[in-house]
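Reopening this ticket.

The earlier resolution said the output was attached, but the attachment link was broken on my side. Pasting everything inline this time so it's all in one place.
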Amino acid sequence: MSKRDLFSELTTALDDAKAHSQGKLTLRTHAVNDINDLAISPDEIVNNRETFNMSRGVFANILHTSARTLEN
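Inline output:
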């Protein structure tokens, strides 16, 4: 396995981004729609967790958050 030259990769990426912003290079871009705030009640969250028979810790892990955050 060869070692990567991260500095050179970052430099190339920044040069490409600069050229793209100046219209000199066409890069693949993606549009992200603005997501409005979700209106989910705590009861709905608990109901979903219980429907899938998950502990708070497992459910929080799937949501990429902490169990403590779910308690709030």
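Reporter confirms the inline version is readable. Residues 47 and 53 are 10 Å apart (CA to CA). The chain has a mean pLDDT of 87.
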